[in-house]
Amino acid sequence: MPNFKLAQLDEIAGVDCPCGVARRAFGGDDNHVATLHMVDISADSRVHYHKRTTEIYLVLEGEGHLELDGELYPVRPLSAVFIKPGCRHRAVGKLRIINIPVPAFDPADEWFDDGAA
User: Fold this and answer.
1) Distance of alpha carbon 51 from its chain centroid, rounded?
2) What does the pLDDT read at residue 6?
3) Which of 40, 60, 68, 111 is 20–30 Å from 94 (CA)?
4) Contact partners, residue 11, CB within 8 Å, separation at least 6
5) What phi, psi does 111 have (nearest 5°)?
C-alpha cells in the first residue's frame, strides 16, 4: 500500500451537508488525521458547530460572507478562515470552498442549536 492517497474531486459524488453539497476526499477507517471537502454553498446554509473538529475554509469561487459566532465577514476567492471547535458558523452566498476538517470529518460531530440534525 502506498504512503499517499490521490483524489479527483470532480469525480466524487456530492452529498448533502449543512452548507450545501460536499465532495469529500480521504475519509475512511484508515485515516483519522484530516479530510478535504469541496463544498458548493447553497443559499439556505445552516448555522452549525463542531465540538471536536477544527475546520479551515478556503474560498475558491464567488463572493459572500461567512457568519462566525453571529457576525458576518465578507469573503471572496482566496479568503481563508480557521474555525475552532465551538464556533457557530455558516457560509452565506453562492460560493465554492475547500474545507479541511481536522481531525478527519465525523458526521457525529455536527451540532445545531435548534436541536435538529
Assistant:
1) 14
2) 96
3) 111
4) none
5) -125, 145
State pTM to two decimals: 0.93
Please state, for a pLDDT cut of 70, what percent of the chain lies above it.
Answer: 97
Is residue 28 situated within a structural domain?
yes
User: Which of 102, 106, 99, 101 is CA-nearest to residue 38?
Assistant: 99
Question: Residue 44, class by beta-carbon neighbours within 10 Å (0-12 exposed, 13-18 middle, 19+ buried)?
Answer: exposed
> Rounded mean pLDDT of 10-35?
94
Please report whether residue 1 resides in a domain. Answer: no
Range of the domain at 81: 16-106
